[in-house]
Design goal:
By secondary structure, the protein is mainly α. The protein is built from five helices and no strands. Helices cover about 55% and strands about 0% of the residues. The chain is elongated and about 65 Å long. The two termini are about 30 Å apart.
Length: about 120
């Protein structure tokens, strides 16, 4: 007879969200940011569709949140300048004014119980 595993285990390793190390995240986002900025700089016209431009602008803004403030601001300004140069002023303005999503939800957010519980 085999023992059935618990469908909802409650071990601390499963319940706790993974820790995000800022230094490892910086190491992960810097090459992505550099590649995206290089692609924009190399273009003579917008290399992306309007939708892809909005996605890249949002991602770029969010990924730079992991960087020190001076580096973050310098890269954001450079990317916005490239979007404007490529005729994407609206996407640039939205990217410059948006608030990035947090890396993970704050601890005080709780999921309400359903009626079945």
């Amino acid at each position: 007879m085999s023992r059935q595993l618990d469908l909802f285990p409650t071990t601390a390793a499963i319940d706790a969200p993974p820790a995000l190390d800022p230094e490892s995240m910086r190491a992960r986002v810097r090459p992505r940011l550099a590649a995206l900025l290089a692609e924009a700089r190399a273009a003579t016209e917008n290399p992306w569709t309007a939708e892809r431009t909005r996605v890249h602008a949002h991602m770029f803004h969010g990924m730079t949140s992991w960087l020190p403030a001076e580096e973050r601001d310098r890269l954001r300004a450079a990317f916005v300048a490239e979007l404007v140069r490529l005729g994407q002023g609206e996407a640039a303005a939205k990217a410059a004014s948006q608030q990035p999503f947090p890396a993970r939800p704050p601890a005080e957010i709780s999921i309400p119980a359903t009626a079945a519980e």
